[in-house]
Amino acid sequence: MHEVLNKKGFICDMDGVIYHGNKVLDGVKDFVNWMIANNKKFVFLTNSPEKTPHELSMKLARMGLEVSADHFYTSAMATAEFLHSQAPGCTAYVIGEAALTKAMYDKHIYMNDVNPDYVVLGETRTYSFEKIEKAIALVNKGAKLIGANPDTVGVTETGIMPATGALISPIEIATGKKAYFVGKPNPLMLRHGIRLLDCRSSEIAFIGDRMDTDIIAGIESNVDTVLVLSGVTAKEDIQSFPYRPKYVLNGVGDLLK
Questions:
Q1: CATH of domain 2-47+184-256
Q2: Which of 170, 184, 257 lies closest to 223, judged by CA?
Q3: What digits encode the pLDDT tens for the residues 89-102?
Q4: pLDDT 10s digits, 205-220
Q5: SS3 51
Q6: Same fold yes or no, 2-47+184-256 and 76-181
Q7: d(CA 54, CA 39)
Q8: Which residues are catalytic?
Q9: What CATH number labels 76-181?
Q10: Domain ranges of the chain
Q11: Looking at the whole model, is its pTM more than 0.85?
């Protein structure tokens, strides 16, 4: 583990690595305090576009972890950054929570439900037939379809909820147009994280709990990958994939053992 601990920077997935729902996982507080005490650069990366960095900071504070908002990077931010890099000053019709809309405004992408350049979708509980109908009409008129992440389901305290990949599929089917997804496993998001840390890829370790999003994104971004078994992946699942993480741990706390 010394090789990992000597890294200059760490990029960590959140759900399944740092917490489950509203419960911090074992060893996380020690690991976060160790990163702060040792002046490590770190960023928490999440495929969820539902909360702003400030809201995520407050969520961790309620769990007893003091982490400032500048340590978070979400798929909403990555999506806004992608659109800004592709078409500065573009407009979008957004189906999603307020954090996704805010990320757009922060990059000077403004709302347009008449003739937008893009239709953008992220996890939301305000999904409706009217919004799908509007999105289909706009995509058929030429708007490009963008998903904040390709996840089909998310896990909540009450069970499974449909995530962006599931919510966007009716629009894809009705229009015959495939969405472009910005979040993991697209390495684009991880590369944004690397840039935020101002480190070379060889100086970073990426810690995640999913083989199909986290580990593949890390491999394709040329960073050392650490799979933790505290989330959705079990040890026996690793053999099902044609690639493997560099390190496998029960949880992030094991790094300090």
A1: 3.40.50.1000
A2: 184
A3: 999 999 999 999 99
A4: 999 999 999 999 999 9
A5: coil
A6: yes
A7: 21
A8: 13, 15
A9: 3.40.50.1000
A10: 2-47+184-256, 76-181
A11: yes
